[in-house]
Amino acid sequence: MSLKDQIPSLLSKITDLSLPEALAYMAQAFPGKVAFSSALGQEDQVITDAIFTNNLPVRIFSLDTGRLFQETYELWAETEQKYNSKIVPYFPDAQEVEQLVSQNGINGFYNSVENRKACCQVRKVVPLRRALQNTDIWVTGLRAGQSENRSSFSMLEWDEAFQVIKFNPIINWSYDEMLAYLQQNQVPYNKLHDQGFISIGCAPCTRAIVAGEEPRAGRWWWEQSKKECGLHANYFNK
Questions:
Q1: 4-193 — its CATH code?
Q2: Taking the domains of the chain in order of start, what are their residue ranges?
Q3: Pairwise CA distance, residues 206 & 67, whole Å
Q4: What is the per-residue pLDDT across 196-215, written as a single tens digit (0 to 9) for each?
Q5: Left, alpha or beta for 228 (phi > 0: left; psi -120 to 50: alpha)?
Q6: Cα separation of 147 and 199, whole Å?
Q7: Which of the residues in the chain have pLDDT under 50?
Q8: Cβ contacts of residue 39 below 8 Å, gap of 6+?
Q9: Among all residues, which ones are annotated catalytic?
Q10: Do residues 72 and 190 touch, judged by C-beta distance below 8 A?
């Protein structure tokens, strides 16, 4: 049976499990083949806590684009110190970044959607492809409530671009449930969240949101296109 064909059976087994139980089940079913991509957002910190606290054999990695907020790096260090565990870094290729900046300018992503997507491709998508090599299950911190784009996502999805099962264990969690988990378990989080930065990406491409805006409105705020960077390619053009 192909990896994709296993999704219905897997979904029936994990739907009613708690977050740690579901992660543990997938780690046992696919030993050494489960990886979690953390951008160190609030959702990601929930999953990181569940993995590290329960000593689950799930590799946690993060994409360092080279343009993250200093507060994000501080949280990265604080998280590793709290759990006495490491988050694996993946960086963009230096030559590709040099070529991108030489061609489009240091802040060329502001000039067009095409330039912005090219920047995301070099700094995020290409490193993610390396990070997901030899991986069957890609764990994400996606929540349906983050944006209209993500409202139809399922707990398990087939990702055609990366040829993996995408596992979204907290897809149905509410924002309040997520905050309650962070508080109850004393999970460290990015202090920018307290300043209106709900969804945090690269520093030049993220602003705080105002009342009435959706959580991802602060990402690439100068664009009118759907707010995805291309990592979740299945949904990028929906």
A1: 3.40.50.620
A2: 4-193
A3: 11
A4: 998 999 999 999 998 888 88
A5: beta
A6: 10
A7: 234-238
A8: 62, 63, 141, 200, 201
A9: 229
A10: yes
